[in-house]
Design goal:
The protein is about 10% helix and about 50% strand. It is mostly beta strands. The protein has two domains: about 110 residues, Elongation Factor Tu (Ef-tu), domain 3, CATH 2.40.30; about 90 residues, no CATH class.
Amino acid sequence: MPAFVSKRAIVHLDVSGTPKQVGEVRSFNIETTLGTIDVSTLATDWKKFLVGQAGWSGTLELFYDPTDAAQDALVADALGGVECSFTFLPFDANERYQLKLGGATGGTFTLGDGDLVETSALAYNAGATAIATALNTAYGITGITAVWGEEGALIIEFPVGVEANLQIMSNLLTGGTGASCLLITERYEGTGYVTTWSVSGATEDAVGVSVSVQGNGELKLNA
């Protein structure tokens, strides 16, 4: 029955096929369990069990802005039984992404968080420094780095505590296929349902809530 406790997690709701982040998670706890079946016989001194199906559940502490209509609508969906996706970063690692442009030979693309943050148009052959500079400008921070890795992939790393939700926003690339931007930080991912939602405090611009989650299916490491 392993348990993991940390301060980094991302909660998404699927909206028309697009994952949208809900709130800002400040801490979480997840627990996995294995069901057991008692197969003991009365003639023995010790009980014996068969291991059955696995399951997981968790709790999260997060802030969200109820005055943001889009965010409030997502919360209403979560409380209405819509399945959520969860990404847990239990090792307090920085978010790292692998960007591949699928062998593009022309065109442009942009990167962002799927919402308000978006870079200026980047050429298909933009260098690592240019991409890192564009990201730092778009996110309004410093410390985002980008270095070339294996097989022409660019590894982008964000500073501690930044929940980037990085993705390709505009894809006008030509001459290639399968451009992608994937989170590669060691993590657990799974889907589940919000079972309780309790207000636990508020700040000037956000409401604090405690959330209980029941997993639905497998909790995967580095899904």
